[in-house]
């Protein structure tokens, strides 16, 4: 049943934003590339890359105003933004972002994006949830391709290496007041990154937090907005001080499992003669529709011997499955780490121990990485050549 708390209930609102003139189209064919005026930035050896610490020479920017709509896309030198200290993005959290990667494929010396249409659809959804303008996802993908081509020397080569892309939108309306932002800046920056786990799979431990909540029905957990992340930093810090890598987020009196850290969460349990891949559903609106999440589900639904279940696992059920020897694997999934094996979950003082790296976790890892780098063809439209 469609309720006011369902993500589907937002669609008429989002459509109304578009029809009232909040959206217009920019075109990739109008792109302007400004000449550099300073020397290229120094590149670190790829073995020394740390996630998000180093940035490429350029950035892509597009400005929007209520009066003029979308402006001309520009690729210019990477640099600080000049915005008003009263900008709505600074005061009211009018900001959202995406995480993507550009990969070098040694099989044909090409650059590739992974399912960029899903990222663009999700970013449109996030922006419109914040009453920002929509945009043409196809045109933005073409701009991303051109941006990657300009920055191709920044795409590190080798398994586990990529150029991380961060499309971002912020409200730049230069006046105070909780209202729709009349000025928006859409920009893309890029950071060369190495393997998330330099020594291969590194299983993590989770602290099941029964006090703090990441998201809730009727909130914005299904949108990639900045406000979802800031409030998680202190609980995550406290969990790390207790010896855990990340938090397992729960909701409700029954301790329903939602996500872990900033990743979607999967369990593999044995039920009779079948294996079940179990993850929280998107239907309630408090789970981020991850691109990696969807890709794992799509792959597993096409494989024999595994049943995909989208319903809320409850921690008492997971504990019981572990005690009965039926909890076979657990992993988080996201763009940064791809899959992150989980070896331990502390729930109300009880340690649930899980096999460190299971068969399905490894298979998902191998399949996705093969598609990323062009070693595996993958389903149509997943690996998009730049």
Automatic annotation (TrEMBL):
Belongs to the class-IV pyridoxal-phosphate-dependent aminotransferase family. It catalyses: L-leucine + 2-oxoglutarate = 4-methyl-2-oxopentanoate + L-glutamate; L-valine + 2-oxoglutarate = 3-methyl-2-oxobutanoate + L-glutamate; L-isoleucine + 2-oxoglutarate = (S)-3-methyl-2-oxopentanoate + L-glutamate. This is Branched-chain-amino-acid aminotransferase. One of its GO terms (molecular function) is branched-chain-amino-acid transaminase activity. Its cofactor is pyridoxal 5'-phosphate. NCBIfam families: ilvE_II (TIGR01123), PRK13357.1 (NF009897). Its EC number is 2.6.1.42. Keywords: Amino-acid biosynthesis, Aminotransferase, Branched-chain amino acid biosynthesis, Pyridoxal phosphate, Transferase. CDD domains: BCAT_beta_family. GO terms for biological process: amino acid biosynthetic process; branched-chain amino acid biosynthetic process. The modification N6-(pyridoxal phosphate)lysine is found at residue 224. Signal peptide: none annotated.
